[in-house]
Amino acid sequence: MTEERTSSGPAPEEMEELQEAIEAHLEAGALATAAAQLEDLHAHDVAELVSELKVAGAQALLGALPIDTVAEIIEHLEVDEAAELTGLIDVDRMAKVLDRAPPDVAADILRHVDWSVASQVLARMEGRRTVGDLLLYPDEAAGGLMTPEVAGLREDLSVGMALSTLRGAETPRERMRQLFAIDNVGRLTGVLELSDLVFAGPDKRVRDVMSTDPISVETGTDQEVCAQLMTRYDLLELPVVDVDGRLVGAIAVDDLVDVARDEATEDMFRMFGMGGAGGVLDPLGDSLRSRLPWLVLNLGTVLLAAFVLNLFNDTIERATIIAAFIPVVLGQAGIAGTQTLTLIVRAIALGDISQRDTMRLLRHEMVVAVVQGVVVALLLGLIVLAWQQDLTLGLVVAGAMLINLAVAAGGGVLVPLGMRTARIDPAASSAVVVTTLTDVLGLLVYLGLATAFLTQFHGN
Question: Looking at residue 127, what DSSP letter applies?
C-alpha cells in the first residue's frame, strides 16, 4: 500500500469487483489472499473498502494487515468506525497501531472506545504521555482537534540554525508547511513559512522573517470558532496555545474539513427539526429519537393553525372558493421564510453577522419581501381575477400574499437572531418556528381580509 499514487485510483466498477472478491476471500477464511489484494491501493481506497465490510470481516482483515498499514487506514476512517474496528482487536496490537498513527488520531479513537479498554491500550503505548495529554481536552475543542506535532522555532535562532533544526526534527514533513516562532519560555510570538527561511540571508534571525501578532486559539476554544477563524483568515494551520500563551499544538486546515461538514449537516438537521443527527441507515431507535419529538412538536403548531382556521369556519362555508387559495398564500410565505432563515442561520454560523446588524438585516429583507410580494401578489391577483372574474377576491388574495411575505421575511430574520440572544442554538428548529408564524399569521390575515369583504363575495 502506498500513500502516493500517480493514477486516479480504481474506477467505481473496479472497487465494486474488488469488494466482492475480498468478501469472498474473507468468507473462505483466506485472510492472506484478501490482504494481498490491498497492497497496491491508496490507504483512502482501502478504508472505503473496509468500511463496507461487516464488522467481523473488517476486524479480521485489519488483524491480517501489517501494523503500519492499519495505522494508515484508520486515518481515513470515520472516528467512531475506526474505534469500533480497532476496539475489539488485541490490546497490544491496538497500542502498536495507535503508536504509529498521528497522536490526534490516536486520541480521537481512544475517546470513542470503552475506557476500560482505552486505559489498557494507553498504558501500553510508547507515546502515552502525548496522547494522554490530548485526552484531557474535550473532543470538540481546539485541544481535542490539534496535533502536538508542530514545528516551533526559537525566535532568536539564526536562519541557518533554524533550517538545521528542522532537518533534524522528528516533526512530519507535512506539518512543516506552517512554522511557528516561540520565545525562550515557549510562548507563541510569530508565524512563518519554510520559504521565508530558505530565501532569507543566513545571518538573519527567525524574528526578522516571521509575521508577528499571529492568529491563535486557546485549547478550550470550540471547533466551530476554529473553523470560522481559519476560513476568515485563510490559514493553513491554526496554532493552539495554553492559558499562558505557550504553543502546545496546531490544527491543520484538512483536520477541519470534516468538522465544517459535520457542523453544516448538524445545523441543517436541527433547522428542520431532526435533532442534529440523522442517517438514512441509522438504527430504527436512533431515527425515532431524533425525529419523533419534533413531529410531535410540529403537530402542536399544525393544531394551532387548525384552531385559527376553525375561527373563520362561517366565512369559509359562505364562500368556499376562499379555501382554495389557503395553500397558495401559506406555501409561498413558507418558502420565502425558509429562504431568509437559511441565509441568516448560515451567516450566524460563519460569524458574518452580529446582533447589532439586526435592524440592517431586517430592513434589507423587508425591502426584498416587498419587491417580491408586489410581483407575486400582482401575478396571483391577475390569475384569480381571470379565473374567478372576481376583483375583490383577487385583491384579498394578493393583499394577504403581500402581507404574509413581509411576515415571513421578518420571522426569518428575528427568529434565529432572537434565539441566539436567548442563548439557544439558532439552527435548533428555527424552521418549525418560522413556519408556524407564517401559517398562523397568514391564516389570520387572509381570512380576516376575506371576512371583511364577505358581503361583496356573497353578492357575486
Answer: T
